[in-house]
Amino acid sequence: MSQYYLSHLKELESEAIFVIREVVAQFEKPALLFSGGKDSIVLAYLSRKAFYPARIPFPLVHIDTGHNFPETIEYRDWLVNELGVKLIVGSVQESIDKGRAKEETGYNASRNSLQTVTLLDTIEQYKFDAAMGGARRDEEKARAKERFFSHRDEFGQWDPKNQRPELWNLFNGRKHQGEHFRVFPISNWTEMDVWQYIQSERIPIPKLYYAHQREVIERDGAILSTSPWLKLKPTEIPSVRTVRFRTCGDMPITGAVESTADTIEKIIEEVAASRKTERGTRADDKRSETAMEDRKKSGYF
Amino acid sequence: MNQLLRFTTAGSVDDGKSTLIGRLLYDSKSIFEDQLEAVEASSAKKGFDYVDLSLLTDGLKSEREQGITIDVAYRYFATPKRKFIIADTPGHIQYTRNMVTGASTANLALILIDARKGLVEQTYRHSFIASLLKIPHVIVCINKMDLVEYQEEVFEKIVDDYKAFSSKLEIHDIQFVPISALAGDNVVNRSENMDWYQGATLLHMLETVHIESDHNHIDSRFPVQYVVRPQTQSHQDFRGYAGRISGGIFRAGDDILVLPSGFTSKIKSIQIGEEVIDQAFAPMSVTMTLEDEIDISRGDIIAKPNNHPQSEQDVDVMLCWMNQRPVNLNTKFFVRHTTKEVKGVLKEIQYKLDINSLQRVENVDQLTMNEIARVKIRTAQPLAFDSYRKNRITGSIILVDEGTNETVAAGMIV
Fold first, then answer.
1. Contact residues on chain A for B32, CB-CB shorter than 8 A
2. Where are the beta strands (DSSP E) in B55-203?
3. Between B67 and A155, the higher pLDDT residue
4. Residues A118, A250 contacting (CB under 8 angstroms)
5. Which of the residues A245, A284, B140, B388 has an alpha carbon 20 to 30 A from that of A127?
6. Is the domain of B284 the same as that of B385?
7. Residue of A nearest to B65 (CA)
8. Residue B198: inside a domain, yes or no?
9. Domain finish residue from B278, B303, B328
């Protein structure tokens, strides 16, 4: 007799597909926020499964800091073609040029927080009423309390103390004119689940995630790739090391880890043995204890 | 095959709930070095001489300032046997709505009892909510055994008291375990201080509790979520019904009945993405095609001709009111049930329940936040529903305020 139960990955997949379909059913103009990172890649593949054999009925939106790893852009363009989905790019550079955002200065300057302005402008320009993202609750403590359907007021802000209760699989996407929702279909996935899913579904991922040789420097315990946007201190001498990335964000602040994991199997082994969270490699979260919560309230991903 | 177990914990600051979660995460090696370092630093900043593991679970700034958990926080850990999702909720009466939220998706509830205090008001409240929300399994952790010299008599007395009380509730699977979350006894590792206890550790219970039958696999229910119509050259005539199975088993070739229309047909195919599958069961998200072209849209329920939900406009509900503004008779709402939304009105409040004493209070015409009551709701169109006892998905509703759009209540259909 067959067993009527699912593996944890299949259950998480089923939950995510349900949420993605709920978004398309409840909203008029949804979009998928695509960063080029593994979480948003998994989200794009789940979206394909949700609507097959129809095409994904919403565009991918990339908020482009202009400080990307070239591998991210190469992969993004390949994926858009592979899935037959529309791509919309919101440019942080344009927001800066228009005076909507102000570039940070100094050694740890990053365009990461500037993305919020561009993101909200893009949502307004295209009148998106739901923006799906690949954020997970296990990533960071402020995210542990995030809903699947997260309501944003007309200024794009999150009010963590006034969230709608979310029960069973009944998601309430009702809203007033000008408000929108952020939706997180893979809320319940962990980093390990994402990797195991990539493995079991044979999802191609950007080369950055695999061990490779790269010119890097070490700063405050983080390994940073050299790039035109990384201002070196006089004492910082770049060297070539074998590294890989656990997340892929804004190039000057995304830390690498020393690794020889050049296959998915080896990456999973490494993730299983890792004693540090993946966001531990992100300089932006280290600014203060509530850095993520503060950014989220103002409309960050 | 690794399964997913969702469990809920409820408790207040001093009953050791956060310490227990910290212990589970720590002993199962699910806490990362940088998380631990951050907590150590915060503990030191507050002048504590120990590492306060509760800081791991209190996510929002205001919570950390006040040292309490306000909202439902979700935690994740895995062992080689299972993956776990913890819905960590505050236990105080003013947070009943959060407990109900956490309980709605849980397979199991962890109930903590302080060995020194025995059963207290919170124990009754948490157990009642577990029973009301039909959480299939309960583990009662008798905590702080180190503070009662690990005495077997203390444990046995609490077990007897709990059994006497819980016989009034609908909880079918209850296990008991004596622990010390602080010292680590019987949480992940077996205690050397309680050789009189022959049972399993808490983690072992979590890893082995039988959850395969938690979903209803008898009464076939498929709420249609979305109609997939590719309208492309290669799939000109494809018309698929997408949704998540909420009960029973569907196979290609099965006769089906659509509600509310009453149309019948046969299942032509079932697929997940490109993969065609033989059978589908809860909680799978699938796309189904039928032999006949019939009019089906979001909100319809596909069931079997010889086993289908009842379709009615008057619904008896156990309602948990969740909004700060009280509700009066004849208030109108949007009612959300599976993938359907209809208008509804609160017709009658039969009684409300004192959730500490389980006493019924009659002659009520208003409900305030965190109150639970048996009510009658009339809907503008019929809903095809089951009792919550039979199916937690087709038996549940939420109420949405027409003006603010907030989710204001959760209901379990009687």
1. 274-277, 280
2. 73-78, 82-90, 108-114, 137-143, 173-178
3. A155
4. no
5. A284
6. no
7. A290
8. yes
9. B303
Is A183's pLDDT higher than 90? yes
pLDDT of residue A230: 85
The answer to whether the CB of B206 falls within 8 A of the CB of B196 is no
User: What domain range includes position B227?
Assistant: 222-303
pLDDT given at position B13? 58
Q: What band does B11 get if pLDDT is binned at 50, 70 and 90? A: low
- Looking at per-residue pLDDT, the higher value among B73 and A80 belongs to A80
User: CA nearest A293 in B: which residue?
Assistant: B60
Q: How many domains does chain B have?
A: 3
CATH 3.40.50.620 residue ranges in chain A? 8-195+290-297
Domain closes at, from B270, B303, B336: B303
Predicted confidence at residue A1, as pLDDT, reads 36
Per the CB < 8 Å rule, is A174 touching B287?
no
Q: What is the mean pLDDT of chain A?
A: 87
Assess if residue B401 is contained within a domain.
yes
Q: Cα–Cα distance between B279 and B6 in angstroms, integer? A: 25
Are residues A170 and B212, on separate chains, in Cβ contact within 8 Å? Answer: no
State whether residue A8 sits within 8 Å of chain B by CB.
Answer: yes
| Mean pLDDT across A231-243 | 91
- Give me the torsion for CA of B83, A136, A30, A178, rounded to 10°: 130
Task: Evaluate if residue B40 carries a pLDDT over 50.
Answer: yes
B287 and B393 in one domain?
no
Using CA atoms, how far apart are residues A283 and A280, in angstroms rounded to an integer? Answer: 8
The answer to whether A24 contacts B215, with C-beta atoms less than 8 Å apart, is: no
The percent of residues above 90 in pLDDT, for chain B, comes to: 68
Q: List chain A residues with CB under 8 Å of B53.
A: none
* Coil, helix or strand at residue B363: coil
CATH code of the domain in which B232 resides:
2.40.30.10
* Domain harbouring B118, CATH code: 3.40.50.300
Amino acid at A72: T
**Top CATH class, A8-195+290-297:** alpha beta
Question: Are B33 and A17 within 8 A, CB to CB?
Answer: no
